[in-house]
């Protein structure tokens, strides 16, 4: 086989395998994270069962059995939590739980801030589009950001937007920037489209991008 053809086939095979590998890594991370949440409860249950039925406890103590039980326990708990959150009594319980956490200084800061971010991302901000493009890390380079709120600058009266800029391919980490509202490039993207663009490294994206206000003719930018 000619060396060029061998190289081409290897590269084609690698490009074919990469999406499967990335999907497996993301899936493995999510499943492992969910199983890790329920693992302590399953371990405690198996330990208590050992006093009543040692044979049953031994059967459940196998690694893969514990893993599956922990995953199922977490999924069932999340489902019940979502079910309760949509019921009046569940909302009251969650409100009481929130009030309890509000009294713990450090926990309140982390939990309260994260919950507000999740709530904000579910609602469209006033005076700005949710998904925008931002000049970062320098002018001329664009990144996708999510506007979390709009503020007013003292003295100048300028409207400033707090923009969360997630990283690729893990959007749970990122940067927070305060940017003048008129320097943002608004988009008509939904949250799902923006997240798909970020996680895929730009592979899943529309064919066109909105132009920044400074790049538009004066007649269009003031329209």
TrEMBL record:
The protein's name in its UniProt record: DUF502 domain-containing protein
Keywords annotated in UniProt: Membrane, Transmembrane, Transmembrane helix
Membrane spanning stretches: 9-27, 33-52, 64-85
Top-level division of the source organism's lineage: Bacteria
InterPro entries reported in the protein's UniProt record: COV1-like
Organism of derivation: Dyella humi
Pfam families from the UniProt entry: DUF502 (PF04367)
Stretches assigned to coiled coil: none
């Amino acid at each position: 086989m000619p060396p060029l053809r061998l190289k081409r086939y290897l590269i084609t095979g690698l490009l074919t395998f990469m999406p499967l590998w990335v999907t497996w890594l993301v899936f493995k991370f999510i499943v492992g994270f969910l199983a890790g949440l329920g693992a302590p409860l399953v371990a405690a249950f198996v330990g208590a069962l050992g006093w009543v039925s040692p044979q049953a406890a031994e059967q459940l103590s196998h690694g893969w059995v514990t893993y599956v039980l922990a995953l199922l326990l977490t999924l069932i708990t999340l489902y019940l939590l979502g079910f309760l959150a949509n019921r009046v009594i569940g909302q009251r319980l969650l409100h009481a739980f929130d009030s309890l956490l509000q009294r713990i200084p450090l926990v309140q800061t982390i939990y309260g801030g994260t919950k507000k971010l999740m709530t904000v991302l579910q609602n469209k901000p006033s005076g700005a589009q949710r998904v925008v493009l931002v000049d970062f890390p320098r002018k001329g380079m664009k990144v996708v950001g999510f506007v979390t709120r709009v503020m007013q600058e003292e003295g100048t009266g300028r409207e400033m937007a707090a923009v969360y800029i997630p990283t690729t391919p893990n959007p749970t980490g990122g940067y927070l920037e305060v940017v003048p509202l008129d320097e943002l490039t608004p988009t008509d993207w939904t949250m799902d489209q923006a997240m798909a663009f970020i996680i895929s490294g730009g592979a899943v994206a529309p064919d066109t991008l909105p132009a920044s206000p400074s790049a538009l003719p004066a007649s269009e930018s003031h329209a």
